[in-house]
Amino acid sequence: MTIAVGQTAPDFTVITTDRKQVRLSELVQDRPAVLAYYYFAFSSG
Fold first, then answer.
1. Residues near 24 by Cβ (< 8 Å), separated by ≥ 6?
2. Measured between alpha carbons, how far is 25 from 29 in angstroms, rounded to an integer?
3. What are phi and psi of 27, to 5 degrees?
4. 6-11: long-range contacts (C-beta < 8 A, 24 or more apart)?
5. What is the dihedral sign for C-alpha 14, 23, 12, 39?
6. Which of 21, 27, 31, 37 has the highest local Cβ count within 10 Å?
7. String of b and e for 25-34 (b: at least 16 CB within 10 Å)?
8. What is the pLDDT of residues 1-45, one digit of tens each?
9. Angstrom distance (rounded) from CA 34 to CA 9
């Protein structure tokens, strides 16, 4: 899926580092959010 700059992302749920579920729709209710994706962020190069 490709999302263009300025395009609204579909709602999704993630698990935080403290094991809580957070939905994108909850984060953007009263403020904008920036979505950053790091492809293979776990790699060394």
1. 9, 10, 11, 12, 13, 33, 35
2. 6
3. -70, -30
4. 9/35
5. negative
6. 27
7. eeeeeeeeee
8. 788 888 888 999 999 889 999 999 998 998 888 877 777 767 666
9. 10
Res 20: pLDDT? 95
The predicted pLDDT at position 39 comes to 73
pTM for this prediction: 0.60
Query: 3-state SS of 18-44?
Result: CCCEEEHHHHCCCCCCCCCCCCCCCCC
pLDDT value at residue 9: 87
The C-alpha atoms of residue 14 and residue 23 are separated, in whole angstroms, by 7
